[in-house]
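Entry 14. Structure prediction run on the chain below.
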Amino acid sequence: MLLCVDVHYEERAATAACVGFSAWSDADPAFDLVLRSEIVPEPYEAGLFYKREMPHLRRAIDRVRQEHSIDAVLVDAHVWLAEGKPGLGAHLYEALGGRIAVVGVAKSAFRGGEALPILRGASRHPLFVTAVGIDAREAAEHVRAMHGAHRIPTLLKRADRLSRGRAA
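Output returned:
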């Protein structure tokens, strides 16, 4: 199983969404999971984004792991920052015991980072892919081949919309 995950924050709550699918090219999800937490989110700290996201992502992914084997998780973030410094994706990989590949799909480059830029659809703006537990070039090709005619793959966009409480 592959997962796209995202978290959306409100003042006194956070909502995590997981979209499960079987093949990189799938147009439709195998399942959706949305978990709302009425816990005040940690404040944003530059360079420590993972502290804010991790509890919500772990709770959702752990719920999915009760019923499915997971091969890879796609996050709307970087796995690696500049000079090999771990980003959210690398921290998530460690939190998952280093057994589930994590692919970071970011909308902007991290200054000094080594993300692979890919173009999708007719967009002139690349996505920036980083990975751990899978070769980064292979991960970038998987993301490029994901369903959707636009810059953001269909199922990654679905996770974003679900976390924001919008109909997918």
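The longest helix spans residues 49-65.
Filed with the rest of this week's runs.
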